[in-house]
Amino acid sequence: MKNILVVFTISLFLFSCKTATKNEEKNTGTAAIEIVETPVLTLGEFDSKASDFVSKEIKVQGIVDHVCKHGGKKILLVTDEGDAHVFSEERFDESLKGSEISLTGIVLEERIDEAYLLKMEEDNIKSHSEGKSNEEQFNNKKKHLQNYRDQMKADGTDHISNYSLQYVSHEIVE
Question: Pick from 14, 71, 125, 145: CA 20 to 30 A from residue 136's CA?
Answer without folding.
Answer: 71
